[in-house]
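Researcher: Let's continue the batch. This sequence belongs to Baseplate J/gp47 family protein, and it's 410 residues. Same format as the previous ones, please.
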Amino acid sequence: MTTLKTAVPGVTITETGLLVPDIADVLSGRLTDLDAAMGGGASQPLSSPQGQISQSDTEIIATNYDALLCLFNQINPDYATGRFQDGIGSIYFMERIAAQGTIVTATCTGGVGRHIPAGSTAMDESGYIYQSINGASIGPSGHVDIQFQNQTTGPIPCGVGELNQIYSTGLSGWDAVRNDAAGVVGVDVESRVAFETRRKQSVSRNGRNTDAAMLAALLSTDGVLDAYVWSNRTDATVNSGATNFPVLRHSVYACVYGGVDADVAEAIFTTKNPGANLNGNATFTVEDKENYNAPYPQYIIQWQKATPLRIYFKVGIEANENLPSDISSQIKSMVETVFNGGYDGITKARIGGRINSGTYYAPIISISPDYVNISSISISGNGVDFTQSLTAGIDQIPTIQQADIEVTLM
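Model: Same format as before. Here are the structure tokens for Baseplate J/gp47 family protein:
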């Protein structure tokens, strides 16, 4: 058997992972190999023929080493992307969530008692068509809040007051529609970070009777953009979160934004603790068809539909003649991107979550690292009182629009 020898260092597999040699060592090894092949004493300047050949060989070897490193990293769920991440997800019986449209909570005005069925449509100022996710009836106040979803998928913003035209025909008694908060933007397709976050949460997906199991089930429900679950295991009502939402004693609280009522109720029913009370402003009756024949036992499932919380930002940066001419626009876009979870490594603003101004410094500076100097970033939930951080209530989902982001050059 012929033994092949080379001075090029190889890769090493250790307990800490794959180690590849420095590219300079690879080049040195190829120069040594060519020198030996020519009998020794060959000239080694990189401009020489053997130097040019060595550089080409080094590039080929380095490219393969990089590919090998990438392949090894794909085995780690923390770094896996694309089809490799999909493969890891398959082990957990997970599929990447397809693209979804922006969801907007809009106030529908009209005749008392008028029912607006699921699938009713409205149009925003940009011409996008939104469809009501669930049906609802107009109450004694003459209006009702309904969630509408953009039929065009992707992170398409819908600002305050932009969903304002009824598109459906033949629905007498429905007079007007308008959104008082920006929409929660959709996604093109579930991102790497979002998929990995859901995979970790899905470890509890097949469980029962735990908050984690219910949360994982809700986040996997088609059309749901966010959810929050908490159990009050005490013998008294607890006022929880920034809004002091009253959670009944010995009960499970679930807050959801998006999703068809039947699907949301089923996710709660299959994971809740039997006998535990429920909370919220939405109800749906579920039948247990899996364990019984007709007539099926019925269960009234209750949950809270999140209300939008309009968030305001103030960003102050030092004036600099080297800043891009559209720096204000770029900063607004960056804040919006980070807020909505589009910045790698930073999770989106969520129901009941804290929004910290410090999270936004690095992404904004990355616009122009040499020239962007941030003086301050502050956040508000009412446009008046600004602080360094803000926590959404457990019944609120934060929303953002660029019109609510103020950039000041100081």
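Researcher: Any comment?
Model: The helical segments are 23-37, 49-74, 82-91, 192-202, 211-219, 261-269, 327-339, 361-365.
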